[in-house]
Every structure is written in structure tokens, then in C-alpha cells.
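User: Let's play a game. I give you a shape written as C-alpha cells, and you guess the letters that built it. Ready? Here's round one.
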């Protein structure tokens, strides 16, 4: 935030020297008529976040300094050599547009329609397991921000808060992501709980048929739950804000699954417990069952093949979510943006796009290639870890401003008027 001050106060802050006195009068009087308003300068009081964190990269850099290394590695890592993760970025950067000139003044409209609902912005918050490990009460902060901005927030099955914990904070667009429980009774119970808590849209994630190896996480000493080894303790000690917040709330765990601890799972390690409960390799019958069991919009997440999209359309899925899980599952996968055009051709279903989106321009790239809506995962957690809850609002503002600036370059008054993209080399 900028604070204004009158010249006498300016003099107090910069002790009066001939130089500052001259500078004061220079600014006050008409050498710079456009500066006739009171002077503005930075103080340590709340800053203009756009001046200090104009882009996601700034938030990412600050986030890394505020969360312990093992948590950072959990959030930021891909799998293998992270080729897919890098490909997401490289491939997005290769999508360009011919800029438009002489189109006169436009005021870009960012509203969009998705599954019959009008949304003020074309993006929302993707499900991230154990968000609450990344920043204390992350699920609560994200749900509240999403409600305020009327954007979708999708909570993960393996969140650090249960659907019931989050229920009071949910807005209009509350989505529940499901890793498929193997036990039909647990399946039904989970759906009932999600529905009773106010979630309207169900997402089935299908791109985790097996656990992936995330080598960076292993190297950092991360286990599930984090065990407090000297290595981890040292990492925590360097991050006091995270440590205090986490100490206040208690060590995060997958609270939504607490209820399903039973004779079969007692004694299992938390990882084995989750593995036992969540049969992560569902099949087509499972999709059919879930489609029939849920009475709201049903979306399948983790699609990269046109034939899968066509089949899901035939099965009555309401939308598909094109994603490579941010490069965390399979290091031989195409960039999501590379897979998108063929999938767009193969189906008329509404498409959600994610993986590697970092700016308004990236959102436009995805929409121009056929996406109807875009989700971001890591970005919102970078923003929250960097600046606390106001970071989420700030990121939303950064993305909206970037959308507007780039739509201005393209002469696009709305998201339906984007020109055909070009491949840049
Ligand atoms: C730390 C982390 C945890 C994730 N946990 C889940 C999850 O529990 N369920 C799920 O469907 N996807 C999960 N994802 C994938 C995201 O929903 C989303 O597809 C991906 O993060 C989008 O890419 P982006 O982070 O580059 O925006 C996770 C991603 C990350 C980075």
C-alpha cells in the first residue's frame, strides 16, 4: 500500500538538507505538474503488493523462504527427471497469438459460463492433497477466498481438513475431488458427506493408478506423516511463521479419512492406510457407478487421450479435466497443452485444463486451444505461503490483470473472441 505524506513529513523522514529541501519544493511545485498530488512513497506499513509481487514468480520465491524444505519439495516437485513438469512450461511458452492493432478501446470481460453457471473469472483452485501441510489452515483460507471471489474451490479427498470442517466456509462453487475408495460403503458414505457439507460437483481423479516416485521428496526426508527426524527439525526451525502456525493447529493429517479407521486398517502406517482405503486404479465400471450415485455435475480428472474423452462422453460424464497432474505422475507424459487440441476435437464435453499455468496469458492459451475453464494448483499455495490469506486475493488480482492486459493486446473484448493461436519457435 502506498502512503501519502506532506512535504514537512517528507522532511522528517529525509532530514532536511539543501538537497532534500530542494527536492521537496521541486516536487511540490510545478516542475512536474503531474506530481502536483501529495508525494507517494513506500513505508514498512502494508505495501502495494503489485509493486513488490507483480507476478507469480515473486510469490513463489517468497513462499520458498517461508516453508520448510520438505514441504517445499512436496509442493514443487514433479516425478523422475521432471521432464513433464518442464515440458508443461516450454509447451505453453510456444503458444502465441498475432497481436491486434487499431481495434480502439476495449474493456475485456472476463466472465465465462461453465456447466450452466456464470463465473466472474475463467479460473479456479485445483485440489491439492494435504494443503494444510503447505500452510496452516490452507483449506479454510482457500475455501473462504474462493467464496469471496465466487470461483470454484476443489477440495482433495486427502486434504488436511474434512468436508465437514470446510462446510461453513464454502461458497457457491464447491467441488469435491475423490480418490476412489475400494469399499462401496465408504464410497457411498464419502459421497453423502460431501453432499451434506455443501459440495455440488464431484471430480473423480483417474491419473494415479499407482503411487508415483517423487525423488525430490524422498531426498528431502519427507515421509507420511512427516516424522520428526533431526533433518526435518532443522528444516522446521528455519521457518518460524510456518512452525508457529503448524504448532497452533497440530500436525496436519488427512482428517477426512479419520472416520474410516477400522479393524482392517488399525496398525497400518498412514501411507498404507490411505493406500488400503483408496483404490486408486478405478475402471470404467467404477466411473459408471459413480456417475449414477452422484446427482450433480460429475467430472473425470486426469485425461490426456482423445479416445478416453470420447468414451467418457458416451458414459454421460458432464465434463473432463485435461491434466498431467502437474508432471507429478508420469515423466513420459505429453505437456497438457500439447494434448489439449486433439481432445478438443474428439469431444463436445466442456473441458477443464490444468498443469503449469502461471499467468493470465497461460489461461488464454488454454482457452484458445479449446479449454472451457482453467484450474491452478501450486500457484495458489505459493501465494498463500508467501503472503498468508491476502496472497490468495493478490494472486487472483494478478491473474485478472494479466488476462485484461493480454486481451487488450489481442483486441479481444471477451474470452470467446480470442484469435487462433500460433506455434512460436
Ligand atoms: C502438492 C500437490 C498435491 C496434489 N494433490 C492432488 C490431489 O490430492 N488430488 C488431485 O486430484 N490432484 C492433486 N494434485 C494435482 C492438482 O490437482 C492439479 O492437477 C495440478 O496441481 C495442476 O498443476 P499446477 O499445480 O501446475 O497448477 C496435486 C498437485 C500438487 C502440486
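Assistant: Ready! My guess for every position:
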Amino acid at each position: 500500500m502506498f502512503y501519502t505524506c506532506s512535504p514537512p513529513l517528507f522532511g522528517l523522514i529525509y532530514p532536511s538538507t539543501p538537497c532534500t529541501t530542494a527536492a521537496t519544493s521541486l516536487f511540490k511545485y510545478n516542475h512536474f505538474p503531474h506530481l502536483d498530488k501529495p508525494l507517494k512513497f513506500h513505508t514498512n506499513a502494508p505495501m502495494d503488493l503489485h509493486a513488490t509481487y507483480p507476478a507469480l514468480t515473486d510469490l513463489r520465491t517468497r513462499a520458498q523462504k517461508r516453508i520448510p524444505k520438505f514441504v517445499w519439495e512436496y509442493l514443487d516437485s514433479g516425478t523422475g527427471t521432471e521432464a513433464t513438469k518442464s515440458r508443461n512450461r516450454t509447451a505453453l511458452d510456444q503458444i502465441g497469438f498475432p497481436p491486434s492493432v487499431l481495434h480502439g478501446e476495449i474493456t475485456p470481460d472476463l466472465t465465462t459460463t461453465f456447466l450452466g453457471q456464470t463465473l466472474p473469472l475463467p479460473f479456479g483452485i485445483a485440489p491439492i492433497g494435504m494443503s494444510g501441510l503447505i500452510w496452516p489452515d490452507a483449506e479454510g483460507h482457500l475455501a473462504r477466498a474462493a467464496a469471496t471471489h465466487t470461483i470454484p474451490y476443489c477440495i482433495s479427498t486427502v486434504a488436511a481438513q474434512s468436508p465437514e470442517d470446510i462446510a461453513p466456509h464454502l461458497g457457491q462453487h464447491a467441488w469435491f475431488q475423490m480418490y476412489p475408495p475400494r469399499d462401496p460403503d465408504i464410497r457411498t458414505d464419502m459421497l453423502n458427506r460431501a453432499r451434506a457439507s455443501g459440495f455440488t460437483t464431484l471430480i473423480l481423479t483417474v491419473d494415479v493408478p499407482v503411487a508415483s516416485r517423487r525423488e525430490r521428496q524422498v531426498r528431502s526426508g519427507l515421509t507420511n506423516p512427516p516424522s520428526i527426524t533431526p533433518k526435518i527439525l532443522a528444516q522446521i526451525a528455519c521457518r518460524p511463521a510456518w512452525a508457529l502456525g503448524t504448532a497452533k493447529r497440530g500436525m496436519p493429517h488427512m482428517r477426512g479419512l479419520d472416520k474410516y479407521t477400522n479393524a482392517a486398517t488399525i496398525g497400518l502406517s498412514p501411507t498404507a492406510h490411505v493406500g488400503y482405503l483408496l483404490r486408486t486404479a478405478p475402471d470404467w465400471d467404477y466411473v459408471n457407478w459413480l456417475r449414477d450415485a452422484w446427482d450433480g455435475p460429475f467430472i473425470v480428472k486426469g485425461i490426456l487421450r482423445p479416445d478416453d474423452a470420447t468414451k467418457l462422453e458416451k458414459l454421460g460424464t458432464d465434463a473432463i479435466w485435461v491434466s498431467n497432474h502437474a508432471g507429478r505422475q508420469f515423466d513420459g507424459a505429453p505437456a497438457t497443452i500439447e494434448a489439449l487440441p486433439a481432445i478438443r476435437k474428439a469431444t463436445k464435453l466442456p473441458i477443464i485444463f490444468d498443469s503449469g499455468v502461471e499467468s493470465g496469458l497461460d489461461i488464454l492459451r488454454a482457452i484458445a486451444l479449446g479449454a472451457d475453464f482453467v484450474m491452478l494448483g501450486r500457484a495458489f499455495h505459493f501465494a498463500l505461503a508467501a503472503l498468508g490469506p491476502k496472497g490468495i486475493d493478490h494472486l487472483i488480482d494478478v491473474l485478472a490483470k494479466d488476462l485484461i492486459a493480454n486481451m487488450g493486446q489481442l483486441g479481444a473484448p471477451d474470452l470467446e473472441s480470442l484469435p487462433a493461436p500460433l506455434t512460436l519457435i
